[in-house]
Design a protein that fits this description.
The protein has helices at residues 3-37, 42-78, 86-110, 117-121, 123-147. The chain is mostly helical. The longest helix has 37 residues, at 42-78. The protein is elongated, with a radius of gyration of 24 Å. The chain starts with a helix and ends in a 26-residue tail after the last helix. The model has no long low-confidence stretch (mean pLDDT 89).
């Protein structure tokens, strides 16, 4: 196996594994951990939240870094295969924007800034937003991957020279 293929495979595995870990962890928190904490006293709940946040923060920050490195690597490796493919670029551009929104919200939820305390108090709502956006990103990624490149070969595209130019003079038979 050549080195470039090995790097491509490792990058893809790291990217997908990071998505599994972070989206899975977020789904766990939303549908298992948060409902379970409703049975705790406020003091117990706060102690658990601080402890979980301290550990989860590392996953979020390392995950974002891995997503950025592998995501942009994968994108730049795929670019030549999608030259002129408007749908690909629209979907990948949208996916990248949504990913940055997810990164922002996730960073706020594990952060300590007083400015975003209101968002952290509405943690359940924002976890739902992350899960929804992540599902959209995964769906877009799956579609783009299965769809492959849909490029018109240069031989099949009409040549610019062959397009007739209209003139003011009447046509002669």
């Amino acid at each position: 196996m050549d080195l470039q293929i090995a790097i491509d495979v490792v990058s893809r595995i790291v990217h997908v594994s990071t998505a599994i870990a972070l989206v899975g962890g977020t789904v766990f928190m939303l549908f298992v951990l948060l409902p379970a904490t409703k049975e705790l006293s406020d003091a117990e709940h706060d102690k658990l939240r601080v402890s979980v946040n301290r550990i989860w923060k590392r996953f979020v920050h390392i995950g974002i870094a891995l997503f950025l490195v592998t995501g942009f690597y994968n994108f730049f490796r795929a670019l030549p295969d999608h030259k002129g493919d408007g749908l690909y670029h629209a979907l990948i551009g949208t996916k990248i924007i949504l990913a940055f929104v997810i990164f922002f919200i996730a960073s706020i939820l594990v952060g300590r800034s007083d400015r975003f305390e209101g968002m952290r108090k509405g943690r359940e709502k924002w976890l739902k937003v992350i899960v929804l956006l992540a599902a959209i990103v995964v769906a877009m990624s799956g579609f783009v991957k299965v769809r492959g490149g849909k490029i018109i070969p240069a031989e099949a595209a009409p040549a610019v020279d062959s397009v007739p130019i209209a003139s003011d003079s009447p046509a002669t038979p």
